[in-house]
Amino acid sequence: MKLLKRAPGKWVFRLSRRDREALQTTLWLRTVLARTPRSISSDTITTDTLRSAQEDLDQALQEHRQELARTVDELLKDPNRCAVADNGTCDLTLTSDDMETLLQALNEVRVGAWEKLGQPNFDEGEVPEPDADNLHAYWALQLTDAFQGLLLMALSDED
Amino acid sequence: MGGSIEIQRPQIETTPRDKAADKFESGYLVVCWNDPINLMPYVTHVFQTVFGWEKSKAERHMREVHELGKSTLVRETFEKAEFYVHKLQKYSLQATLERDE
């Protein structure tokens, strides 16, 4: 995947057939990498206000994940934004909103993969043994690293 | 015009502070915690996007998260703090709101 063109608020990336398949599979992994529920506060939730806020957060995240899945699906199936040539390459045209959507979707996979591995701190040498059950999580970490890195670099060039 | 006018003042009822009032005070901190899997440029980007910060400020907070395990991002009312926590969590950052004691 490489950046082909850039205009203010708009980017065009060229993806080879393998890039496209890798991106689609990476994003699909959201469906198999369950996320750990997140807390609204590090305090023990004892008040009605916090209890209600926790429920709101749970619901907002659930709706957001559904919306992300729908948006990403539409993006990759839209021939005007993801034009696939006969040889399988694809020119992916992204707006600023699309960039944010893809970054969020990829990080959803990334954090899900990390949770699947038991939340290791790789910087401190914690590396769980790869096995048949977690290999897809390692794969997801590698791929999200590459795709997020590229999107962030493209965004950073705009600063 | 010599007569005096009696002014009736409205009765002001005072009630004890309630929980609702608390929600409108800027007494809540938005804290971001370190998940050592998030890419550093990603965290910086999210802070810039969510808070509209300059890159240097976003990077300073990103480094705090990375090196100290957490960073206090803003102090806000309950509702605004909750709004920011939602925004950050939608980027899969571990953010919470804390009462500033």
Tell me what you see in this structure.
The complex is a heterodimer of chains A (159) and B (101). Chain A is an alpha+beta fold and 159 residues long. Chain A is 53% helix and 13% strand. Chain A has one domain (2-37, 78-156). Chain A has a 4-stranded antiparallel beta sheet with strand order 1-2-4-3. In chain A, α2 (48-77) crosses α3 (96-116) and α3 (96-116) packs antiparallel against α4 (135-156). The termini of chain B are far apart. Chain B is built from 4 helices and 3 strands, in the order αβααβαβ. Chain B is of the alpha+beta class. Chain B has a domain at 36-99: Ribosomal Protein L30, Chain: A. The interface between A and B is medium-sized, with 36 and 28 residues.
What percentage of amino acids of chain B are in beta strands?
15-25%
Mean pLDDT of chain B: 86
Query: Cα distance, first to last residue of chain B?
Result: 57 Å
Radius of gyration of chain A: 18 Å
Spatial arrangement of strands, main beta sheet of chain A: 1-2-4-3
The low-confidence runs of chain B, each spanning 5 or more residues with pLDDT under 50, are 14-18
Low-confidence stretches of chain A: none
CATH topology of the domain at 36-99 in chain B: Ribosomal Protein L30, Chain: A
Assigned CATH superfamily of the domain at 36-99 in chain B: Ribosomal protein L7/L12, C-terminal domain/Adaptor protein ClpS
Largest interface: A-B, 36 and 28 residues
- Our count of domains of chain A comes out at 1
CATH class of the domain at 36-99 in chain B: Alpha Beta
How would you spell out the order of helices and strands of chain B?
Answer: HEHHEHE
In CATH terms, what is the architecture of the domain at 36-99 in chain B? 2-Layer Sandwich
Query: Measured on Cα atoms, how large is the radius of gyration of chain B?
Result: 22 Å
Say how many strands of chain B there are: 3
